[in-house]
């Protein structure tokens, strides 16, 4: 390894304070605003700040043990998560992203899944190859889950029913009142399981009527809460998510989990991120600033938008969604994909505030061409 | 991030050439010979050299995109692997280690698994929660797979039969003549699938009668070859393995794969490792030197050992295996675990040659105490 190639990296520049005269703070000058081709990805609900400086350092410190199986580095992550959530290590299962956690529970429960329409696409994709029935219940006009209708479907289910509730919901960014979910959990018969996907929890935790389903896990083995390091901690590329559930449920999921699916560097980066007390407020505040800029532009242009409690939002477009995405791509913005049945809406993830200022200019151009 | 904490890492020392006056080459001075507690792990068939310097640099260069989902970084790994193996990208499926690949195929095929006894333990563990029958066929006296008896079992199976052949076999380190496997594949009826685990391929490829099952995949959709970056490339902690199979089979496995289970840093490190032409010969030669030292000591002490074509070997012990492992642990060596039914044998992975010199001293002490 040559010093020269090392010092060419952004990391070395950041360490040595030679960030090229930008006004951005040091922790940001090294962060990944753009993809290698120069485009800005506003299509995958990623964190534009990148991983924390503490996580970067932990990865560098962790290089020496990349040749060892990663079980030992996962253990302290589980311990710290247990403390953070006021549970025991036996209440936590790690996965290679929260999507692996969702896949495992779809397989473990094995019963009919009752979910919103639209919602996070990975869950129906995991059900399909195992011929697990999947019921889609349209969101209500306020884009919250139709808990009453989902409950009716569960009541009509023979055998196991699994309520998948993504809250805030992806792709709509909207929240479902947690009082309604609590009522259902409280009164649910024995055949109903609850898979509560809180991937965007930290962006929504201050919202009225929103709280975690965590309070159920100590006493109710049928409630599983799913969280991720991909969003607020910016670790989508490293693959770290987890389930919090009753210890009996965690024991059951442990039996079907892949060996060592969480890699060593994800664990050390996750641990460092948990100890970095600035990470959550920094991500939250940056996202709030970015979203307010975008919301103001959409309102200024009279473009209908859904209320957002996450790091993305949906807004109305005119014309064809694929045309819209292609035109955005030509201007260096990756947005969308299609989220049927909401084909007259685009989902856009927040970049940095300055990205959303530039994106606003593109929206104004689109309006001048009647593309939005 | 402070320069001080960075320069305290072994990486900085290695980069700056301040390796403490050791005679070891630079790429080795930064490598992970010991666990944080000072012990040497000879229990998990890991590569004591650590990941390659090129992989370390690729990880550092890859830090900027850790916040992005890793699909884009996996694509070039698939391309290079396809070229390396003379197949198309459509013949490759990546996984979070080869164990995830094995898990996926156990689930995809869903039929009775016919395997050696003993063999790699993850496969029966993946079958069990899905109530997939698992037949164990004892190894022959020369520790090769009993292909004739496995074939008989398959012939008696109604519905799908899956022949799991780990070659070289873990935990015995022995090879099964590939001519016998080819004969079976050639004559197998339609209900028989072959899951050929070549995790240790690179250590065995020069052995008489040993070759890859790769030649089958273009024409036979029922043969799956499984490889890993955990062993010869030293990447056990990063989680990267893959299947090579007919494109129809890869399409089927793609449908049940977890989204994005391979992390961004594993992909960039894997790609760099594939381009590092010194990595395979360096790992192979270091392992050969280490194994010859251990074999000479075992022979000198008259301790029965199995022939090894991998980075580990099994040798006979006297007395209880747990006592043996505990006594080794007290001396800083992690060895074993139990591999029933071979409970009077210990499995030991190779460390560096100098580790095996020191380990030989421990074996001599054990002999003087009649523990071996």
Helix content of chain A: 40-55%
CATH architecture of the largest domain in chain A: 3-Layer(aba) Sandwich
Portion of residues in beta strands of chain A equals 5-15%
What class would the helix/strand composition of chain A place it in?
Answer: alpha/beta
Please tell me how large the radius of gyration of chain A is.
21 Å
From the 3D structure, determine the CATH topology of the largest domain in chain A. Answer: Aspartate Aminotransferase, domain 2
The span between the termini of chain A is: 50 Å
Order of helices and strands of chain A: HHHEHHEHEHEHEHEHEEHHHEHEEH
- The overall pLDDT of chain A, averaged over residues, is 91
Oligomer: homodimer
Stretches of chain A where pLDDT falls below 50 for ≥5 residues? 1-31
Describe the sheet with the most strands of chain A. 7 strands, mixed
Shape of chain A, please? globular
* CATH class (first level) name of the largest domain in chain A: Alpha Beta
Largest protein interface? A-B, 72 and 72 residues
CATH-defined superfamily of the largest domain in chain A = Type I PLP-dependent aspartate aminotransferase-like (Major domain)
What is the total number of structural domains of chain A?
2
Instruction: Give the tally of β-strands of chain A.
Output: 11
Order of strands side by side in the largest beta sheet of chain A?
A: 2-8-7-6-5-3-4
Count of helical segments of chain A?
15
């Amino acid at each position: 390894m040559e010093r020269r190639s090392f010092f060419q990296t952004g990391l070395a520049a950041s360490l040595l304070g030679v960030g090229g005269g930008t006004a951005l703070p040091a922790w940001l000058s090294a962060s990944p605003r753009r993809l290698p081709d120069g485009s800005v990805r506003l299509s995958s609900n990623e964190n534009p700040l990148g991983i924390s400086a503490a996580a970067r350092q932990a990865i560098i410190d962790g290089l020496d043990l990349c040749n060892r199986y990663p079980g030992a580095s996962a253990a302290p992550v589980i311990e710290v998560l247990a403390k953070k959530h006021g549970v025991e290590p036996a209440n936590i299962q790690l996965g290679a992203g929260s999507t692996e956690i969702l896949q495992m529970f779809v397989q473990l429960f094995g019963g009919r899944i009752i979910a919103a329409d639209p919602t996070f696409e990975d869950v129906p994709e995991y059900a399909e190859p195992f011929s697990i029935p999947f019921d889609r219940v349209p969101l209500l006009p306020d884009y919250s889950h139709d808990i009453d209708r989902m409950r009716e479907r569960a009541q009509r289910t023979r055998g196991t029913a699994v309520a998948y509730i993504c809250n805030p919901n992806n792709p709509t960014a909207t929240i479902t009142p947690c009082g309604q979910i609590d009522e259902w959990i409280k009164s649910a018969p024995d055949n109903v399981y609850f898979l509560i996907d809180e991937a965007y929890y930290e962006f929504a935790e201050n919202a009225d009527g929103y709280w975690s389903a965590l309070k159920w896990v100590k006493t109710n083995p049928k409630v599983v809460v799913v969280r991720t390091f991909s969003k607020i901690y910016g670790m989508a590329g490293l693959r770290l998510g987890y389930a919090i559930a009753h210890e009996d449920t965690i024991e059951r999921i442990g039996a079907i989990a892949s060996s060592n699916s969480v890699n060593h560097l994800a664990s050390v980066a996750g641990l460092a991120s948990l100890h970095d007390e600035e990470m959550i407020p920094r991500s939250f505040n940056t996202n709030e600033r970015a979203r307010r800029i975008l919301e103001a532009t959409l309102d200024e242009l009279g473009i209908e938008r859904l209320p957002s409690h996450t790091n993305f939002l949906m807004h109305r477009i005119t014309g064809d969604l694929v045309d819209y995405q292609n035109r955005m791509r030509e201007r260096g913005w990756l947005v969308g994909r299609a989220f049927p049945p909401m084909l007259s809406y685009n989902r856009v993830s927040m970049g940095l505030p300055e990205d959303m200022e530039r994106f606003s200019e593109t929206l104004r151009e689109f309006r001048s061409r009647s593309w939005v």
